[in-house]
Amino acid sequence: xxxxxxxxxxxxxxxxxxxxxxxxxxxxxxxxxxxxxxxxxxxxxxxxxxxxxxxxxxxxxxxxxxxxxxxxxxxxxxxxxxxxxxxxxxxxxxxxxxxxxxxxxxxxxxxxxxxxxxxxxxxxxxxxxxxxxxxxxxxxxxxxxxxxxxxxxxxxxxxxxxxxxxxxxxxxxxxxxxxxxxxxxxxxxxxxxxxxxxxxxxxxxxxxxxxxxxxxxxxxxxxxxxxxxxxxxxxxxxxxxxxxxxxxxxxxxxxxxxxxxxxxxxxxxxxxxxxxxxxxxxxxxxxxxxxxxxxxxxxxxxxxxxxxxxxxxxxxxxxxxxxxxxxxxxxxxxxxxxxxxxxxxxxxxxxxxxxx
Length: 356
Fold this sequence. Notes:
- This protein is an alpha/beta fold.
- It has two domains: 6-125 and 288-319, NAD(P)-binding Rossmann-like Domain (Rossmann fold); 129-281, Dihydrodipicolinate Reductase, domain 2, CATH 3.30.360.
- It is 34% helix and 23% strand.
- It has nine helices and 14 strands.
């Protein structure tokens, strides 16, 4: 087993409780440092959650040469700026999705990766979970025949009027916060099938507070011969993170595909001349965040990008050229960001403002 990572965390955020606190409890990696906008809050957070120290500022944390990985769980509009700063300081970075506020800002960060000592990974943790990898494997191997329809829901209740996810200036919106998962999983499936998602049409429901911010989005895409529908909302009465793939010979449903460990079910129906058969496959109870951090430890310690997607042989695999692996993983992130921009344009909404 490789040595534990020393992790520094920018932002004492809600998502960090899963991505870092829960994950390090499962992996044994070290909670080395935390920084928040309010130094006193950072100190209290460090004491409560077992961090070795609290830094007085974001700048001080990314300058800490004892860190192996910096986690950025700040509001969307700050992701690219602090990823770029951390890379310039020589750090490895795990940045929450989406990677940037728009494609131009993404490209600005990607240019910095060329000469950086470290690397930046986008935190699409769901792709590390074995249940998602199993679904992609079944679709790729033709278990349900040729895909005909793909339906992805990323719906959640209103997080509250004061939540930064409603802020246009902080790159908020339903598509940015949760809908990006739906677009990313279409890219994963597309890679497995040798197809590229093509946007056909999209419409948005604007938020009450700012018409530039989407409360909900519905988009139709084509993935080869399959019709794909994406629905995402931050004003839903219920939580629904479901992924359904219907093929010529059956159907696969993965409920709560973003966090399968939390009650997710993988249900496979196959049709044949003898009739239909439905089975439910076991879902690994280990958190997707733990799987993600395990992969990143290997990637940091042994090299490579640790691509969990189709074709990715895994971090540190000698059969994979680390530079090629990193380029492929970065390209998936780039295409996700490009699709987000395309959907906003089709909805008649502006791209989110960047800071780089």
